[in-house]
């Protein structure tokens, strides 16, 4: 028997939707400080452990250095 896929039955879609909802929730709160959600997460990680190396920060945030480094440079410039 062939069973068709339904978005509402997919855990990955539920997580994707929840992520989008969180982004919409945080966007107006963070925009008043000129921050994006990833930048906010960087600040939270740094508040927990100041002076982290980029690799350690990337591990904490599950971000590769080629993603994190430009983000940090934009934050520093701002």
Tell me about this structure.
It is built from 4 helices and no strands. It has helices at 11-31, 37-48, 54-61, 65-77. The chain has one domain: Arc Repressor Mutant, subunit A, CATH 1.10.10. The protein is mainly alpha-helical and 78 residues long. The relative contact order is 0.09.
Keywords:
single chain, 78 residues, mainly alpha, Arc Repressor Mutant, subunit A, 4 helices, 69% helix, 0% strand, extended
What's the end-to-end separation, in Å? Answer: 57 Å
Query: Rg from C-alpha positions?
Result: 17 Å
Oligomer status: single chain
Strand content: under 5%
Largest sheet geometry: none
Molecular shape: extended
Give the uncertain stretches in residue-range form.
Answer: none
Q: How confident is the prediction overall: mean pLDDT? A: 92
Instruction: State the helicity in percent bands.
Output: 55-70%
- CATH class term: Mainly Alpha
CATH topology: Arc Repressor Mutant, subunit A
CATH superfamily: Winged helix-like DNA-binding domain superfamily/Winged helix DNA-binding domain
Main structural class: mainly alpha
Number of domains: 1
SS field, number of helical segments = 4
User: What is the number of strand segments?
Assistant: 0
Brief summary:
This protein is mainly α and 78 residues long.
SSE arrangement:
Elements: H1 11-31, H2 37-48, H3 54-61, H4 65-77
């Amino acid at each position: 028997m062939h069973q068709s896929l339904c978005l509402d039955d997919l855990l990955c879609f539920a997580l994707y939707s929840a992520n989008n909802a969180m982004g919409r929730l945080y966007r107006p709160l963070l925009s008043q400080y000129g921050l994006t959600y990833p930048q906010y997460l960087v600040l939270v990680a740094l508040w927990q452990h100041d002076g982290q190396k980029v690799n350690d920060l990337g591990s904490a945030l599950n971000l590769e250095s080629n993603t994190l480094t430009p983000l940090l440079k934009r934050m520093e410039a701002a």
